[in-house]
Amino acid sequence: MAREILADTSGLYALLVAADDCHGAACALLKSAAAQATRFVLTDYVLDETATLLRARGHRAAARDLFDAIVASSACRVEWMTAERFDKTKVFFLRHADQPWSFTDCFSFVLMRELRISEALTKDSHFAAAGFSVLLAPAA
Fold first, then answer.
1. Is the pTM of this model over 0.85?
2. Domains of the chain, with CATH numbers?
């Protein structure tokens, strides 16, 4: 089985927006992943969150690029929220009420455990707090 990396909102944003502080690192990671036949997994919730963020920050064309790239890519797949996953995510979210994690993050964590994915294309420290490897470090 090929190595898989979960793509989170901040990682996708970094790939698509050249002004992002992690754009270069994200592009280098993508190039390296392509050479190693690594697959990227993302959720429908992350797609929603990323498209909304791109539009809110004035990057409407990048939102179209995001959708086009996901549809065309054989190295990327979308995992969808199902009723069963929603229930698992709800339980996880409520069990970790002491954490500042969003429901979208919790869905990613549940999915990563389900699929045995340990790395995330993200700069979100919540992933590290949940026990996963964060592949992008924001500028200090």
1. yes
2. 4-80+118-134 (3.40.50.1010)
Alpha carbons 21 and 47: distance in angstroms, whole number: 20
Query: CA 140, 137, 5 angle in degrees (round to 5)?
Result: 170
Judge residue 22's burial from the number of C-beta atoms within 10 Å of its C-beta, 0-12 exposed, 13-18 middle, 19 or more buried.
Answer: buried
Rounded-to-10 torsion of CA 49, 125, 89, 4: 80
The runs of H, that is alpha helices, within 57-117 are 60-72, 83-95, 103-115
Q: SS3 for 30?
A: helix
Instruction: Using pLDDT thresholds of 50, 70 and 90, give the confidence band for residue 75.
Output: confident
Q: Which of 29, 55, 51, 54 is nearest to 42 (CA)?
A: 51
- pLDDT tens-digit readout, 78-88: 999 999 999 99
Contact 7, 38 (CB under 8 A): no
**Pair 10, 46: CB distance under 8 Å:** no
Residue type at 8? D
